[in-house]
Amino acid sequence: MSTRTRRTRLLFASALAATALTLTACNDGQDVRDEGASAGTASTPAPTASATSSAKAGGGTSDGSADGSAGGAAASSGTTGSQASSGSKGSSGSTGSKGANGSSGSKGSPGSKGSGAISRCSVSATRTTATVVSRPLNHLLLTVTNTGSKNCDLLHYPAVRFGEAQSVPAAYEDSKPQAVVTLAPGESGYAGVRLSAGDGSGSHGYTAKSLEVYFDTSAKVAAHPALPAKGVYVDDSVQVTYWQSTMDDALNW
Question: What is the pTM of this model?
Answer without folding.
Answer: 0.55
